[in-house]
Amino acid sequence: MPLEITRLHLASLQVGDRRWPVHGFVVTHPGGAVLVDTGVGGPQEALDDWRVVNRSVADALAELDMTPADIGLVINTHLHFDHCGQNSVFRHAPHYVQRAELSRAQREDPELCGWFDFMNARWELLDGVAEVLPGLEVVATPGHTEGHQCVVVRGDGAEFDLLIGDAAYTPRLYADPDLAGDQLPPGQARRPGLA
Ligand SMILES: [Zn+2]
């Protein structure tokens, strides 16, 4: 049975003069469901700065007739506040991140730690490529952050879907990062040397 991917709309942020969506993805498999990224959470100051219009991940899951308890495993592409902000809703589940990303976030974003590195958080720390479940893999894609990872969802045959997190914000940028020029917020995908 192929894995199925459903996109969740979790929030929007103000970036320059545009609103950017925040997504999570539910990947259902024969044994249950995986959530890739948990949406926005963090200190009020951060929510104000980004003019966040937020949703609870539980509400978003309810639209799929699911509850947080149905999520058996969480993958964070990275630990920015719009990708791991509601991790604590899934205390029952292991959270798969790159080891390099957890150390980066603890070092660079200590004020956010309470949102993802809460007591008894069940980390599964990865070093590079890893198979999380049959047909579901992560690949380390440092750039946007030091420990960023993308998620590969394999279909039948050679087909696969790639959940790219913030490795690039749009398909155009993914195809040609040079198009971005100076228009991108700090840390967004750039080729080495262009920072
Ligand atoms: Zn990010």
Task: Tell me what the structure shows.
The protein is α/β, with parallel strands linked by helices and 195 residues long. Helix content is 16%, strand content 32%. It is built from 5 helices and 11 strands. The chain has helices at 44-49, 57-62, 99-108, 113-116, 171-175; strands at residues 4-15, 18-29, 32-36, 53-54, 71-75, 95-98, 123-126, 130-133, 136-140, 149-154, 160-163. It has a 7-stranded mixed sheet with strand order 4-1-2-3-5-6-7. Strands 8-9-10-11 form a 4-stranded antiparallel sheet, with no helix packed on it. A hairpin with a 2-residue loop joins strand 8 and strand 9 (136-140). The longest helix is centred in the middle third of the chain and has 10 residues, at 99-108. It is globular, with a radius of gyration of 16 Å. Bound molecules: zinc ion. Residues 78, 80, 144, 166 line the site of zinc ion. Zinc ion is lined by residues 78, 80, 144, 166.
